[in-house]
Amino acid sequence: MKSLEETQGTQKIIVTWGKEKIHLDFLRQGAGSLEETTLKQLKERLKKITGVPVNGQKLVFSGAIMKDDTATLSSLGIGPSSKVLLMGTKPDDKDLVQTTTGSPEEHALIERISQSIEKTRTNLIPQIESLETSASTFLSNQSTNNDIDKTKSKLIDTHHYIIENLMQTLLTLDDVVCPPEFETARKKRREAVQYTQGLIDRVDSVKDQLLHTSPTEVKN
């Protein structure tokens, strides 16, 4: 008797991971088909092949990272012969020692948290320091500034831009769901949230000075 796969036939997609090309077969219909397989299920399948944790995988199709783990592959536009790019690395034993559970999934969550904060430090800290310096200079000299409103407006706009990016960091961290047993990851996430909120307070204090400090108060 022929198997279900032989009866229905299969469809194939190709996943590129570094120099490796992974050919994955899917049924043409029903469970195990592109129409019913979710992105999360694809990640689980790739984890077994590559060792890259589900939480550490980024799957790219048509130039965009696919983010909705509950979406089916067909709803994401993936069809027969589609090519998907897998981004992610398999953690080694040294990495896993740093986790509470020794789980690759916990390590992947810690990496996501660290990458988010490092991106914030690299992109926003210089802008925050520049805003603080510019605001201090403006407040110290605004009595002789012939274009006070325009300068203040520009500084406030910079404040808004930085705050929007910091809020995006908080949203990214909010998407990192750490199970109770992943104690190290949960601690890292709490620290990252506190750090980001501290930056928000720091930037908001600059805005408060711009809105409420008078030239006389600055000079004194």
UniProtKB/TrEMBL annotation:
Residues of the Ubiquitin-like domain: 36-93
Q: Which residues form the BAG domain?
A: 154-207
GO annotation terms (biological process): protein stabilization
Q: Does the keyword DNA damage apply?
A: no
| Family matches, as Gene3D superfamilies | BAG domain, Phosphatidylinositol 3-kinase Catalytic Subunit, Chain A, domain 1
Q: Which SUPFAM superfamilies match?
A: BAG domain, Ubiquitin-like
Q: Please indicate if the UniProt record lists Flavoprotein as a keyword.
A: no
| UniProt KW keywords | Chaperone
Which is an annotated GO molecular function term of this record?
Answer: adenyl-nucleotide exchange factor activity
Example GO CC term: the record gives: nucleus
Q: Which PANTHER family match?
A: BAG FAMILY MOLECULAR CHAPERONE REGULATOR 1 (PTHR12329:SF16), BCL2-ASSOCIATED ATHANOGENE (PTHR12329)
| Name of the featured protein | BAG family molecular chaperone regulator 1
